[in-house]
């Protein structure tokens, strides 16, 4: 099995969670309407895990799209099937080894992806119209896929997470690449950000609390909860269903919401509950085992111009400190940015395809592209208002760390990317060795039609 391709395909599902092909992940839940008809069926069994023909075909179609008319290797379907089989082996072993991911992690990742899809397509309504399904149904159909991806990633981390490469190994890896096979990179930039949320002031908080308490009083006086939820709730998914969230298990919803819900009897009404999403009024509908069904009305304090101004003023002071060398941009981002993902990386945004900090211009958020278009390397922008993926008002400053012109790959300019490729190759070897050790510990059956793919081999 070719190591480099196998690692790319192995991580394909996980990469979809973070990459520019993210919308294709959602496409996997199915869009109503005309589609190419194929005969589906099980082509590989790995204990209780299965690979469907549609799984193979779906990734093959993605590869065709990404190839943009260029011919694919003749054995690509076999290589995809090998990687899918390894993914299922990871899931099967995770089950026997009791490797699990927390429901809260699944929910956070699911919400992050749905917010991304909504942002890309424009609105919840447009997303629902495109797939001809309510947002709630789309999330539930995507939930199993997300959970499997996270479990696979956790297994991979356990197998190869501690693998590292030395500078010498990176040089050796680069030296083995034929000169005529070195990639050609378009213009790439390294961009950092420091984010400050525009937090509503006390007046806005109190206004929302007053309204929520009024709604609670109306329900206690006999008003219909569902009707009020449809009219006032700012949760666009559940509001259409009268605030109904459906059944959730323990630890699947934020702690404050869950704690308030579980203290109620069916039909009971909670006090006003604050969470990271805003203020909730909760009514318990039903308890069933360790699951519970609730409906809620959600309202969020609105950030005003003064809140944005306060965030901008704070960032202006921080920008001045960075410019006067009293603190580095990286340290300021780690210590003070309210975007935890980029903050943990010194403020640098990640390339969604390979995880590096070098981002091709055509992959940049348009707002960032037009901000840095006229900036010189090393400069920091003025505070810029924007809206976060989860819909919060915020302000950020943008730092252009580097701007690399088009060039053929070399160790000086592309060490980070080459080191990542070398690391991936070494991780591939660790995964191959794990596959060899564990392929005989589970039941694996391959459809005779695909026997020629030799999915249980590590080399072809």
From TrEMBL:
Stretches that traverse the bilayer: none
Signal peptide annotation: 1-23
InterPro entries with a match to the protein in the record: OMP_Chaperone_SurA, PPIase_dom_sf, PPIase_PpiC, PPIase_PpiC_CS, Trigger_fact/SurA_dom_sf
Domain PpiC: 186-286, 289-399
Keywords from the UniProt entry: Isomerase, Rotamase, Signal
Gene Ontology MF terms in the entry: peptidyl-prolyl cis-trans isomerase activity
Keyword flag Signal: yes
PANTHER family xref list: CHAPERONE SURA
Name of protein: Peptidylprolyl isomerase
Species: Hymenobacter edaphi
Lineage, top ranks: Bacteria, Pseudomonadati, Bacteroidota, Cytophagia, Cytophagales
